[in-house]
Design brief:
742 residues; mainly beta; Maltoporin, Chain A; 22-stranded antiparallel beta barrel; 5-stranded mixed sheet; 6 helices; 47 strands
Length: 742
């Protein structure tokens, strides 16, 4: 797809040509002053922000109508998303993914002590119907967010109940959203109730979604079709043993089993006693049903038979109670203060049984995480802002594992995924200063000090390496220096240098698990923190009040990067009754990532709007003395083009999504070991093919209380997989949506 850069820059040329067009009625000028929240935890203008920030507003969220929060990010065309199964979605940003990206909701971090370095599905816990906006901060955000914010921050902001300030003493509202789609027989219902008053505001939201098995497209690589179909023995018998059945799969577009259910609930109570104080108590609950790890069910033995009869996650659970307050004193050493106290609970479990094996292995992990945050803001005259804050994090991990013999339901303790009772805690102080030091010039300077402590006691029954009790601690200084220059109201130049870090968590240094049929990953208590030094250069240009062009280049170098090498140590360990080669995370010599991102947004006409995004990333990782290989989480070239039409109560759009190829020679070493999720080239080597897909949508607001929408996705019914994904994307999909407000 080498023609894509030429096509993209032809869009830029068209935008410049629009400046000379006087026959069109000029729409409202695009503003450089869009407000963002995620950069400093306080509202500020984008023209002062030296980093790239993607903002997805409530209007754009409702128009895209995503199935999950992960799909929402992918539909932006500026965040790449990997999926190992239908119940998943792991963002990739500039070569970073999983626990190197920080997820946050309403100012609170979600990353816990067992967020893993492999693909991570926790964005699935966010209810897309409950969102007010989403901000994606590109590049290290460690000054404000601490460990894990190496490659960026994905910050979800949920809808707030509104206060009344007029003559009406109170108001009640109800919102109902229904949607259905054909590719996976989706059935979704969302109900939100809200009450508004002068001092009290309340809202409660509930969502339920049922997903059936996902049907892939019809036209594309046959390698994506499942090679077999497994029917697990529904009633294991003591006398006959396990009698699983498998058949060579006749070509089928249905990916089974992949369906699952999900439930979300949100409740918020806010109290405003006066103009200076605001209090809130927000609670969230998300729970899925069981869902299969589809990519594991594609694995086969040497004789072509299935490796697994079952491999599924138990319910993925996330709950949070968030108490917070805001205070605006009339005078003093700060102008605004925010206090946050949260309690979060994470639960997940894994279940796998090999084909015709009577033993099913079950592991259960739970994390209790508490956080305290205090953030302050002070305006220093008209040209300077000072932000500072403090954060405390506590994590405690519970991990259990069993080997269950299905013939008699006997249970034998097994090696848990993590040391039971392990803790991971962190304390941090940060400060950030912003100054307009000359006309058009703005500078941002930030620093953070973090202290991390972790402790894990390895059960002697499974401690083959004699670790015993491991105590780990480290501290780190991180910083940021950013400049923006705005010579006029239509152009902004930016440069940013940042230093981020990530401290090893329990998943990094104390985990035992099998990533594939060859290896088992074992603990490494000697891991050290990894650091990332990055630089961003960007330009944001308005053209004729109609076109908005952004271009950003980036480079990030990592020191002591934690990487799981593709090859094992050559030694073996017994795991689930088998001798297996083992691997462990190691601090390697070098990792670096670089590339550029471009976007165009222009008004062709008061009723027509066009958008285009294009992202390119490259780089690699190298162990000491080894060769440089492509980083596992570097996405292929990807992008999107959209054409939107809006007139009165009608809204319509067309879009084209595309991905470039990663050939067999450039595929990362760790991915070459998973040929069952990739297409094969003419020499039988795995690679990630290029693809593109078309979609269209139509929406009509019949009244202020009723909106109907429909969409046709993947119109050409392409069979494709996003890079590193274990499940194919939906085929041709019809989506219907109904929104009612009372």
């Amino acid at each position: 797809m080498n023609y894509l850069p030429k096509l993209f820059f032809s869009f830029l040329f068209l935008a410049q040509c629009l400046q000379a067009q006087d026959t069109l009625v000029a729409p409202k000028s695009i503003s450089l002053d869009e407000v963002v929240l995620s950069v400093s935890n306080w509202a500020q203008s984008q023209r002062k922000v030296p980093q790239k920030v993607l903002v997805l507003s409530k209007k754009s969220l409702s128009m895209r109508a995503p199935q999950t929060a992960a799909d929402l990010l992918q539909q932006s065309g500026q965040v790449y998303v990997q999926k190992s199964q239908l119940g998943g979605g792991s963002p990739m940003i500039r070569g970073f993914s999983a626990n190197r990206l920080l997820l946050a909701i309403d100012g609170v971090r979600m990353n816990n002590a067992i967020f893993r370095s492999g693909n991570l599905q926790n964005s699935l816990s966010i209810d897309p119907f409950a969102l007010e906006r989403v901000e994606v901060l590109y590049g290290a955000g460690s000054v404000i967010y601490g460990s894990d914010a190496l490659g960026g921050v994905v910050h979800f902001y949920t809808q707030k109940p509104e206060f009344l300030s007029g003559e009406n003493p109170q108001e009640w509202h109800a919102d109902l959203h229904l949607r259905a789609s054909s590719a996976n027989d989706e059935r979704t219902a969302h109900l939100r109730l809200s009450h508004s008053g002068a001092q009290w505001a309340w809202s409660a939201a509930f969502s339920q979604t049922d997903f059936g098995d996902l049907r892939m497209g019809r036209f594309g690589p046959a390698d994506y079709l499942s090679p077999f179909q497994v029917q697990p023995d529904p009633r294991p018998s003591t006398s006959l043993g396990i009698r699983d059945v498998w058949t060579s799969n006749t070509p089928s577009d249905l990916q089974s089993p992949s369906g699952y259910q999900q439930w979300n609930a949100t409740q918020k109570v806010h109290f405003r006693p006066n103009d200076r104080w605001l209090f809130g108590l927000d609670t969230f609950w998300s729970e899925t049903g069981e869902f299969s790890r589809y990519d594991r069910l594609l694995q086969s033995n040497d004789d072509g038979s299935p490796r697994y009869a079952q491999w599924y996650y138990g319910p993925q659970i996330w709950g949070m109670a968030h108490a917070w307050s805001q205070y605006r004193p009339q005078s003093g050493w700060f102008d605004q203060m925010k206090l946050h106290a949260t309690q979060q609970f994470f639960g997940e479990s894994r279940n796998d049984r090999r084909f015709n094996d009577p033993v099913r292995y079950h592991s259960d992990e739970q994390v209790s995480m508490r956080t305290l945050n205090a953030d302050f803001q002070k305006a220093l005259g008209l040209t300077a802002q000072w932000h500072w804050g403090w954060e405390q994090i506590w994590n405690r991990v519970s991990s259990q594992a069993l080997a269950i013999d299905l013939r008699d339901r006997s249970e034998i303790p097994d090696a848990p995924r993590y040391p039971d009772g392990a803790v991971w805690n962190a304390t941090a102080l940060y400060t950030q200063y912003q100054q307009q030091w000359a006309t058009g010039w703005n500078a941002t300077l930030g620093m953070r000090y973090s202290k991390v402590f972790s402790q894990a006691s390895f059960d002697p029954r499974w401690d083959a390496f004699g670790f015993g009790k491991a105590t780990w601690s480290a501290d780190a200084f991180t910083g940021q220096l950013g400049l923006t220059y705005q010579s006029n109201a239509f152009q902004k130049w930016s440069a940013n240098i940042s230093r981020g870090f990530r401290a090893p968590n329990i998943d990094d240094y104390a985990k035992i698990f099998d990533p594939d049929a060859q290896f088992v990953v074992v603990p490494n208590p000697e891991l050290k923190p990894e650091y990332a030094t990055g630089i961003d250069l960007g330009i944001h240009q308005q053209i004729g009040g109609r076109a908005d062009v952004r271009l950003t280049g980036f480079y990030t170098r990592m020191d002591q990067a934690m990487i799981r090498p593709a090859e094992g140590s050559g030694d073996q360990v017994i795991y689930q009754g088998e001798w297996r080669n083992f691997q462990r995370l190691e601090n390697i010599d070098l990792a670096h990532y670089y590339g550029w991102e471009a976007s165009v947004d222009w008004r062709l006409h008061p009723r027509w709007n066009a958008q285009a995004q294009y992202s390119v990333a490259s780089g690699g990782e190298r162990a000491e003395g080894g060769a440089l290989s492509r980083g596992r989480h570097i996405p292929p070239t990807f992008g999107q083009m959209r054409l939107n039409y809006q007139h009165q109560d009608w809204n319509a759009g067309l879009w084209w999504d595309f991905q470039g190829e990663i050939n067999a020679g450039d595929l990362p070493d760790s991915e070459r070991a998973k040929p069952y999720i990739y297409a094969l080239d003419t020499q039988g080597r795995p690679f990630s093919p290029s693809w593109s897909t078309l979609g269209a949508r139509l929406e009509h607001q019949w009244s202020p209380h009723l909106t109907l929408g429909c969409a046709l996705e993947n119109i050409t019914n392409r069979r494709y997989r996003t890079y590193s994904s274990g499940i194919s994307a939906p085929g041709r999909n019809v989506l219907l949506r109904l929104d009612v407000r009372i």
